[in-house]
Design a protein that fits this description.
The structure holds two protein chains of two kinds. By secondary structure, chain A is of the alpha+beta class. Chain A has helices at 22-30, 62-65, and strands spanning 12-14, 17-18, 38-45, 48-53, 56-60, 68-69. The longest helix of chain B is centred in the middle third of the chain and has 38 residues, at 344-381.
Chain lengths: 70, 782
């Protein structure tokens, strides 16, 4: 299990855990970051990530990506 | 007559909701705010049936209560109970979009799904069995293409039909332990609510939704009872209640789509991904961003086409200012009114007060429209979301969000739309901070002030203007860092997460409509405030008490019996000027008020009544500062007889009429007077005093119209006053430090002032460099 920040680009990973405060967790889950779902890092810039989750592209900060474990 | 049918349009952000709304309602739209919040509310009458009102809900992912948009949307759906929900679903992202659908169908309101972008699904070679999906979800589904307008009318008709007859029952069931708990909750807590809403309430109680629990006001006993059920389910499923429900929904959707959604290609990069590879590339992102922004700026606010640049905006604005505003409205109305023999005060009120004010607003409109057009283009094609992403890391360092960049860019043109542009920032703290700091950036109307100071005292040096931008940017950075460390702004940090829509060719209908909406709202807002304050300032500077008689000062000064030689001597002494320089305006209410007020500017180096009056009129419109100087330094604001540059003689035309010239925008005819006066009252340090004056006027509260925009966007009297007080206080402190410390180098040091400046500087540095305590705590909390 590793945080999403460390995942290699363009490789599909399965989400194992979503952490953070209840609000944050819920918001991430609402946007499609659910345990068991697939996530792919598409691009990184200055620590921020663009990830593919479900069929959408989501920009996410390093701090947030650190709370998603794959 | 039948009851009016109300339909709500709901869907994910970027699902084509706005496009569909525009297609369904055409021009019959009313834009407003949701009560109590600054989330925009749009309503419109359906083209297919004018009796039906369509309400555009904010784009949401879920009905949880964590973002303002979600709260607004669900309150509307629960409290106002529209007759039907038209749920727009992006077929290319079915799973995530249906997640919201599963929540909407629980509300007990008939739901009709508008399945958007089916054409794109087909293009990608994927298939969706719509018939089966319709059967499984238990609600009508209409395939549409919002962009092309296909199927849009059918969707509207289906929604109207559903509103009249339909009923949607949620078809999905959760797993055993959850349903068990839900059944219990329904039994003990929500049985007295309308039957069709019971399930939604039960689920929310299960999720321990604070807002719902608050509303239901359950007894402690009931709460304890259901808490047991929830805890039991949580234990069995090994997760918290909210996440259980979320997971259950996704699991349900996953199973639902198994037989329905067939994907052909897998793992290929879409065209949008390929563009992103370049545009958000770690090395290319910033240069591309800079190039795009430069182009936007150059086209709207840069050098006018007339002067060899490419700025269509500046070109049109120059024309609107000089021809439309100045020549036609102000002078035209004056000529007509004088032709009718109207009383001078009436001419003054209408021409100088109202039309000059209207003209000032109109002058900005073309430039703003060009700017809005380009921003709408960037937004519609999908680049705007990337800007926020690219800039976020930089802006985050001083407490702002990546989305703060756009308000500031717009602010270089005019602060009013700049402040309005802060709306797109969801996080309240980030938005407030952006609103407070956006007007530090020199706007178009502040350029004449900079031109005047640079021309009059610095020999037209270009570094004055350059430094003004740096001061503006530094003020934003410093304020951001300082405010971030205060209690008021130390709330939840907004961790960055936002969806990036796929790039697409802009839809012209959307772009033009968006441009016009923003432009019109700018005209309305700026227009009302500027016209009103122009009238007030016109009155204050045109009327006064002359030798015991109240009236229009210009008229009273024409009366030798009122303005006696002795009286002129009195006025001259009061204002500290020679007798032959006494003017009607010296007796205006404005001068009487400004004279004592000017004392507070003494520590800043310009404690003279003229700069004080100019600063006050700057609140009406910043470009008025130069106009006011024109009046105060013996230059008729409207026209002065032209002088032959070589001989120094007054010029006359062939008919013997005097040739009149107008005050230039940068006031170059009064440069010598201004320089002499600033040198005079500052004890020979005119440059420093003028620079301090410029800093204060750049940073202090913006014009009334922008203050009005701040009030609207803050949506709070307290925050508006705080913003204004902060801006003025910050401007005062910086100008004081510059003036007092500056004199250390140019001479004429004042010990008390220097100590005050050093203390303020130390406080500033302390606030800047003290550790950001909340950071650690909040980092854990995120």
């Amino acid at each position: 299990m590793m945080p999403l920040v460390l995942a290699s680009p363009e490789e599909e990973n399965i989400i194992l855990r979503v952490g953070g405060s209840p609000e944050m967790k819920k918001h991430l889950e609402d946007m499609g970051f659910v345990v068991g779902g697939a996530v792919t890092v598409m691009n990184t810039i200055g620590g921020n990530l663009i990830v593919k989750v479900k069929e959408s592209r989501v920009a996410i900060s390093r701090e947030m990506a650190g709370k998603i474990f794959v | 007559m039948d009851k009016q049918i109300r339909i709500a349009l709901a869907g994910n952000p970027n699902s084509g909701k706005t496009t569909l709304f525009n297609k369904l309602t055409g021009a019959n739209q009313f834009v407003g705010n949701w009560p109590g919040v600054t989330v925009e509310k749009k309503e419109g009458k359906l083209i297919v049936d004018k009796e039906v009102v369509l309400t555009d809900l904010p784009g949401i992912y879920s009905l949880s209560p964590y973002t303002l948009e979600e709260v607004v949307a669900r309150n509307y759906l629960i409290e106002e109970k529209p007759d039907a929900i038209l749920n727009i679903v992006d077929a290319t992202n079915l799973e995530r979009n249906l997640y919201l659908t599963t929540q909407l169908v629980e509300l007990g309101i008939p739901v009709v799904i508008a399945l958007n972008m089916m054409d794109l699904v087909g293009k990608a070679g994927d298939t969706i069995n719509v018939k089966e999906l319709r059967r499984q979800l238990g609600c009508p589904i209409v395939e549409i293409s919002a962009l092309k307008g296909d199927g849009v009318r059918d969707a509207a008709k289906a929604a109207i039909e559903a509103a009249k007859t339909g009923k949607t029952l949620p078809q999905h069931r959760f797993s055993g332990p959850v349903e068990h708990a839900l059944a219990h909750i329904e039994e003990v807590t929500v049985h007295n609510l309308p039957e069709e809403q019971q399930r939604w309430y039960a689920i929310k109680v299960f999720e321990r939704d604070e807002k719902v629990l608050e509303k239901l006001q359950l007894s402690a006993e009931t709460k304890a009872h259901i808490e047991q059920d929830i805890a039991a389910a949580e234990k069995e499923m090994d997760d918290d209640a909210e996440s259980i429900i979320t997971n259950e929904r996704y699991v349900y959707i996953g199973q639902l789509l198994k037989g329905i959604y067939k994907k052909k290609g897998k793992g290929q990069l879409s065209a949008s991904d390929k563009i992103d590879k370049i545009v958000t590339n770690r090395f290319l992102a910033l240069p591309i961003f800079a190039a795009v922004m430069f182009l936007v700026y150059a086209l709207s606010m840069g050098t006018s086409i007339a002067d060899g640049g490419i700025a269509l905006g500046t070109f049109l604005t120059d024309w609107a200012n000089d021809v439309l505003g100045e020549a036609w409205l102000t002078e035209g109305s004056r000529a007509i009114l004088e032709g009718w023999g109207a009383a001078p005060w009436l001419v003054g009120l209408i021409s100088d007060g109202i039309f000059a004010g209207v003209g000032a607003v109109l002058g900005f409109v073309p430039q703003m429209l060009v700017l809005f057009l380009m921003l709408c283009l960037l937004e519609d094609c999908g680049y705007m979301a990337r800007i926020a992403f690219i800039m976020d890391r930089i802006f985050r360092r001083f407490g702002l969000s990546g989305k703060s960049f756009i308000p500031m860019l717009v602010g270089t043109g005019c602060g009013i739309p700049g402040v309005m542009a802060s709306r797109t920032i969801e996080n309240e703290r980030d938005r407030r901070m952006t609103i407070m700091t956006t007007t530090f950036i020199p706007c178009g109307a502040k350029m004449p002030i900079i031109g005047l100071i640079a021309g009059a005292l610095f020999g037209g040096s270009t570094w004055v203007a350059t430094s003004a931008y740096f001061i503006g940017i530094a003020a934003i950075v410093i304020s951001g860092i300082m405010l971030k460390k205060t209690k008021m702004f130390a709330g939840d940090p907004a961790p960055f997460v936002m969806e990036l829509p796929a790039y697409h060719v802009p839809a012209w209908g959307n772009v033009l409509r968006g441009t016009w909406e923003r432009g019109w709202s700018f005209i309305k807002r700026a227009g009302t405030v500027i016209v009103l304050s122009s009238i007030i300032i016109w009155f204050l500077s045109g009327f006064g008490t002359v030798n015991g008689r109240f009236g229009m000062v210009d008229e009273l000064y024409g009366d030798e019996t009122v303005v006696t030689d002795e009286y002129v001597a009195v006025v001259a002494e009061r204002m500290g000027i020679p007798e032959d320089e006494v003017e009607p305006m010296d007796d205006s209410i404005l001068a009487h008020v400004a004279q004592p007020v000017s004392v507070i500017f003494k520590p800043l180096g310009f404690g003279d009544w003229k700069p004080a009056v100019a600063t006050v009129t700057g609140l009406v419109a910043k470009e008025d500062v130069v106009g006011t100087f024109g009046v105060l330094y013996n230059f008729d604001a409207r026209a002065e007889q032209a002088v032959d540059e070589e001989t120094g003689e007054l010029l006359f035309d062939e008919d013997g009429e005097p040739v009149m010239e107008e005050l230039e925008e940068n006031g170059d005819q009064i440069w010598a007077n201004v320089a002499a006066d600033f040198n005079d009252f500052s004890g020979g340090h005119g440059k420093l005093a003028a620079y301090s004056f410029m800093i204060f006027n750049l940073l202090c509260a913006p014009c009334f119209a922008a203050i009005g925009a701040i009030k609207r966007e803050m949506n709070s009297r307290k925050w508006t006053w705080f913003a204004i007080a902060y801006q003025c206080g910050f401007a005062y402190v910086i100008a004081l430090i510059v003036w007092q410390l500056g004199r250390l180098f140019v001479g004429g040091m004042n010990v008390v002032g220097l100590i005050a400046a050093l203390i303020l500087l130390a406080l500033l540095c302390w606030q800047l460099f003290k550790p950001y305590r909340e950071a650690q705590k909040l980092a854990v909390q995120v």
